[in-house]
Amino acid sequence: MTSILMYSVRPDEQEAIQAWAQANDIQVDTTDHDLGMNTVDMIKGYDGIVIQQHAALPEPELYQRLKEYGLKQLTLRITGYDIVNLQAARENGLVVTNVPAYSPRSVSELVLAQVMRLVRHLGEASAREAKDDYTWDGLQAHEIHNLTVGIIGAGKIGSAVARIFRALGSTVIANDPVHRPELADTLDYVDLPTLLKRADIVTVHTPLDETTHHLIDAQALDAMKPSAFLINAARGPIVDTPALIKALQTKSIAGAAIDTIEGEAGIFEKDLSGTKVDNQALETLKAMHNVEVSPHIGFYTDTAVNAMVNISLNDVKTILEGGTSEHQVD
């Protein structure tokens, strides 16, 4: 019987995994360990592999081991594939796939929640209420239909964000090299400088690669309105974290929401109660009342979890049967 090993599996994924295994008559085993040099030997004897993790996999030896064990693919049940050494994978004949659109609504709805908290100054209000201060000064808000939302990266997730805010009456603009005709009644495409200058909400939905690393840097933040908010529910390194902190401290922008941050590996999804978190930038941002922090949970809905399990396992099955996955990234 064909067998697949899934790394970094959470309890909430088990029901979908077992249902898929039964429906497809394929053995699917799981571990809560990440894939790495110290766990790669666990894959020996299996036909396929699925991973989901923040920890990077740079070592060429790891890909050589996968090849030696007869693996033909490395499937991620997440969107971001920057953790993979694509050159080493290619050199060892491994097809790399991801899940580019598990549920665009999941991320877009978190963005909406973050924006509403920022625009309504709920972080500041909650901080005051904790001290029994119920004054209104500084809490007057704008209404969302009067604001311009700027989307950097209008792919599947960015498009879902655009449709939500357009439905609320906002003006929506976007910067993306691909202009999608199906969004003609939803948004207007503009260049990046224009978007940064005009938008009241700047939300980032690009993949992470060499062209988008620190795309939002000091210069970009400087170009934004002092009254504008930045949202990052994509990948942490797209935003230059020290530059963001400085922009917030100097009031160059009004606030930010981050669902992902540089250096989050080993922190987000972990219970670190009673320990010292090794990310001072994260601690600084958490202390700001005009910043919303969530632990990379934009994807985390029932619909998305089921889709990530099923799409990734279907990709493994397709490749093992000699087919080609539409989700191949290299």
UniProtKB/TrEMBL annotation:
InterPro entries documented for this protein: D-isomer_2_OHA_DH_cat_dom, D-isomer_DH_CS, D-isomer_DH_NAD-bd, D-LDH-like, NAD(P)-bd_dom_sf
What does UniProt give as the signal peptide span? none
All residue ranges annotated as the D-isomer specific 2-hydroxyacid dehydrogenase NAD-binding domain in the record: 113-298
Q: Which Pfam families match?
A: 2-Hacid_dh (PF00389), 2-Hacid_dh_C (PF02826)
Annotated D-isomer specific 2-hydroxyacid dehydrogenase catalytic domain ranges read 4-329
Domain of life of the organism in this record? Bacteria
What PROSITE patterns does UniProt report for this protein, alphabetically?
Answer: D_2_HYDROXYACID_DH_2 (PS00670), D_2_HYDROXYACID_DH_3 (PS00671)
Q: Which keywords does this chain's UniProt record carry?
A: NAD, Oxidoreductase
Q: Which family does it belong to?
A: Belongs to the D-isomer specific 2-hydroxyacid dehydrogenase family.
PANTHER family linked to this entry? 2-HYDROXYACID DEHYDROGENASE HOMOLOG 1-RELATED
What name is this protein filed under?
D-2-hydroxyacid dehydrogenase
